[in-house]
Design brief:
It contains eleven helices and nine strands. By secondary structure, it is an alpha+beta fold. A five-stranded antiparallel β-sheet has the order 1-7-8-4-3, with no helix packed on it. It has a four-stranded mixed β-sheet with strand order 2-5-6-9, covered by helices on one side. β5 and β6 form a beta hairpin. α3 runs parallel beside α7 and α7 runs parallel beside α9. The N terminus is likely disordered.
Length: 410
């Protein structure tokens, strides 16, 4: 683990505002495919050395992909949700760490879209189109549950606010230009404060030591008397007072990361078996790739990965349908479609990354090959929220047409 802390005095300069502006869905997919090809080449080494992807994130910012969900009236491409999910899947198949880092970025762009004022949207969407990154300061450790927040936003004497709290699992914060902080206001309502990375009293600590997703720098954010102007606070609690896609949007991207991990593992397993595995002596074959038992297993794994990819695509289209006509029914259908995709993708990713060793043989377990990164990444990322609760909501919806709750995690 790197002992790297960013305080105001040590803060990296803000991302230069020189990003390309992507104009539509097809270009977004083409740019993502090109970047994925480059990011994949160094992914195993970055993971092995725990080398944080600063250069790769600079490329991501410059590419314009971080701005593809900005509304057209603000100059963005406003791509479909299905397109965004495919962009994230492509990046995750190359390096799921890089794909996870901007997941919260896209979520908090969406928060501005839903609850930001006209002035907030104008300012922050321009920042996003310039390539600047949002990182989250969301979860807290030691509270009763994941939605129990101790971080508080209190009024100051100048008409603004002051933030105090400690956040954990703050993916993207170390690389961010703006850190999005979930907090409770004096009325105990949920708000999001958009805080510049160099703000006095803000400290970002790279103390993430997870066995997987090692280079996401999902560490600690400390907020000690951080001053926040009133125009940098968004009333997030209003998101959940009516039909909403906040949870479906966020969970769709998590599912895309898991699907990307599964595809990457299966692709690498196939290459390994074709080029490096030895056949089992009882097969009487010269090449492991000709073994009918191995072929059978690859067929089963391919079916699983293709099913996960298909469910992800359908979930993205369900979110797009709801975006076009949002009401209780379409919001529920979108959330259930996303929950279904993730409920399938999570175990599929873990199973495929485990089966990589089964089909490849003993040599694949060598630490120097770092093939185990796929399993470590899948096992770590799929811990974000329990599939068993998604199955409960899916079952209630299928049996009794009970809509899922509006808590933002489904």
């Amino acid at each position: 683990m790197t002992d790297l802390t960013r305080t105001p005095a040590q803060a990296s300069p803000r991302t230069p505002g020189t990003a390309h502006v992507v104009t539509g869905d097809e270009e977004a997919l083409a740019v993502a495919a090109e970047l994925a090809g480059r990011f994949a080449k160094g992914a195993a080494g970055r993971d092995a050395r725990r080398e944080l992807p600063h250069a790769e994130l600079a490329e991501l910012s410059a590419s314009g992909l971080l701005g593809i969900t900005v509304p057209r009236e603000h100059g963005g491409a406003d791509v479909r949700s299905a397109t965004l999910a495919e962009v994230v899947r492509l990046l995750a198949a190359a390096d799921p760490n890089i794909a996870q880092i901007p997941q919260s970025h896209f979520v908090y762009v969406n928060v501005l879209r839903q609850q930001g004022s006209a002035a907030q949207r104008e300012f922050f969407f321009a920042e996003v189109l310039a390539g600047r990154r949002f990182g989250n300061a969301q979860s807290e450790a030691g509270t009763r549950h994941v939605q129990d927040y101790r971080t508080r936003l209190r009024p100051d004497e100048e008409g603004g606010y002051v933030l105090d709290g400690v956040k954990h699992y703050s993916t993207g914060a170390l690389f961010a230009d703006w850190i999005t902080v979930l907090a409770k206001d004096p009325a105990d309502r949920l708000v999001v404060a958009y805080v510049p990375a160099g703000a006095p009293g803000l400290t970002v600590v790279d103390d993430w030591e997870g066995m997987g997703q090692r280079t996401t720098a999902s560490g600690t954010v400390r907020l000690e008397g951080v001053r926040v102007p009133a125009d940098r606070v968004v009333p997030h609690h209003l998101t959940f007072t009516g039909p909403q896609l906040h949870g479906a949007h966020a969970q769709l991207l998590h599912a895309a990361i898991d699907v990307g991990i599964a595809r990457a593992a299966l692709t690498e397993a196939a290459e390994f078996v074709r080029t490096r595995s030895r056949p089992w002596f009882e097969s009487g074959l010269d090449h492991a790739a000709d073994d009918p038992l191995t072929i059978q297993r690859f067929g089963e794994l391919e079916v699983s990965v293709r099913a996960a990819e298909a469910l992800l695509g359908e979930a993205g289209r369900a979110v797009d349908r709801a975006r076009e006509h949002l009401d209780d029914e379409t919001a529920a259908a979108a959330s259930i479609a996303v929950a279904t995709a993730k409920a399938f993708a999570d175990p599929a990713a873990v199973q495929v990354t485990d089966a990589l060793f089964e089909v490849s043989g003993t040599r694949s377990a060598l630490d120097s090959l770092n093939l185990h990164r796929h399993w470590r990444n899948a096992r770590t990322h799929t811990l974000h929220d329990p599939v068993r609760w998604k199955i409960q909501h899916i079952g209630r919806y299928a049996l009794n047409r009970t809509p899922p709750p509006r808590h933002g995690l489904i």
